[in-house]
Amino acid sequence: MLEIALQGSKKYYGWIGALAAVILVGFAFYLYQFTFGLGVTGMSRDVSWGFYIAQFTFLVGVAAGGVMLVLPYYLHNYKAFGKITILGEFLAVSAISMCLMFIIADLGQPMRALNVILYPTPGSMLFWDMIVLNGYLLLNIVIGWKVLEAERSGSKPPSWIKPLIYLSIPWAFGIHTVTAYLYCGLPGRGFWLTAILAPRFLASAFASGPAFLILLTFILRKTTKFDPGKEAIQTLSKIITYALIANLFFFACEVFVALYSNIPEHIDHLKYLFFGLHGHGVLVPWMWTAMILMVLAAILLLNPAIRKNETMLAFTCLILFIGTWIDKGLGMISGGFVPSPLHHVNEYVPTIPELIITVGIYAAGFLVLTILYKIVIGVKKEVAA
Amino acid sequence: MENSRRNFLKVAGVAALGVGVKPAVNVLSAAGGGETPAAKVAKHENALTAKKWAMVIDTRKFESEGDLDKIIEACHSIHNVPDFSEIDTPERVKRHEIKWIWKEEYKHAFPGNENEYLNDRLKYLPFLVLCNHCEDPPCVRACPTQATFKREEDGIVLMDFHRCIGCRFCMAACPYGSRSFNFRDPKPGIEKQNLDFPTRMKGVVEKCNFCAERLAVGKKPKCVEASNGAIAFGDLDDPNSEVRELLRENFTIRRKLSLGTGPVVYYIV
Ligand code: SF4
Ligand code: SF4
Ligand code: SF4
User: pTM for this structure?
Assistant: First the structure.
């Protein structure tokens, strides 16, 4: 089926070329980072994880979000998702490949990455994260590919694919849970040390992932005349509504516990993020923007009329996506490191090389996504013809 | 080569256990190491040993900040800890800083215990802080490669610089900020290299090692030596050791006990 990805319009090749150019620039800056060391980023002794790990965390969520299509379609036989489930699976493939690239970009000694396998350490959450992420990547590649192949040849997918699909459902929950466990089991990091972290990660994932998917289907419809079907979009928008509200509710629970208990270790991070601490507060405008966008999106989504209006729906999905991205891809990681465990306030701001490398990785992810979606659309066209 | 440092430490441990010189050397050759410095260490019969090394810092014995600076300088110079202040901008120097032992005010060393009306000496006197060689170290739990590990025979939390992948999970896990990362090649920041101790490469984490390399040749940690008796070092498991004596006689505090990490660095205030 790969050959489908090679036959495209000028526009398609233009887009691929543009992505490739961005990837190359990103890679050049990565080589610079590789030679000098991670000192080219804004990270420091106190904020030892930054933009890369934050993007990784956010994208694990996007990947897990695909399960919101897989689950209704396969477990509840919800036919309306039949056409787009594959889009969810391939979105997961692209998101996880970005996650893996972000991890590599974040390693001080990337050439030694295999040490995680050579010296397996089941006590470390990072070990498990590596396993679940690679497993999820593999599952989605195999499932997506086989199902698509079957669709192309007009046959049924092989019978061994069913158990894999069922396995992929809890696995999706697993990847984001283990990712949350990276953070929430660390003593002395009050911001993350909360049992709500994994549920909150999942809720925000199940809002941002499907929201992104709605946007993608709209783009596909514009560029390729692929029609996801009205019902599928409407159902997705309802799923997003519930997930977003759950995310806001979980966050409110967290804020209540921190504020009412008034325990400094928990409250200080929230103070830093939303009001600034000891005169430092680069993230304050961002965090308020995130909150306003998420609350606004929730209010809009609660209106059936707005959900049904596709322009409004697209707008809402966009602000929801931006809101959750700031919340997780910006605030969640820095917020946990400031103030430091010794209560110093050293802020983190990503540097230009760091941002360019990040954009390069996103471009690589989009390249994967474009190629996979191109194949999907190609197959669907063939079958329809 | 990859494992030489780890073997060196193991060998030092075997030697420390009193198993003797010969098996220790065998371990080394069996692992294919055969590096001379390690062999030299293995032959040392007067290595200092303990079941559980611990430190007691008597803050009353420090008279000025100068006393502390001397100790810090002593540790950092023998361990090839770089200082970039001559070769980079202040902002980057701060971000790339590496420190094994350093000064913190009471409110930072013991956050959560701060007291507005604290006596002036304690309020302004800096405390020396370093890795606590925790009994249940979160950094070891977090490390995905066992590059950070606890040496069972004496409780020291050590690092294998050749195995570390630089994921910095241990830095997020350590609640004491004891760990530093080589954000760049440290060599340009090392003024006078101590050839008896390895320099690190960019991209790995490092921290105080309780001077395991000195214990192996029968010497107490450098900071202890440079402290004029203000820092004591000994076996927590031995009721007659100097540290146990000090703990019996004085009221001591440790950092962030509520986290259950079990630090073995004690402070007399
Ligand atoms: S103080 Fe930090 S680095 Fe040292 S053993 Fe404890 S957790 Fe690990
Ligand atoms: S940075 Fe090195 S020592 Fe720290 S957790 Fe990662 S591999 Fe282990
Ligand atoms: S014990 Fe050794 S390594 Fe640790 S602070 Fe003292 S001198 Fe430095």
Answer: 0.91
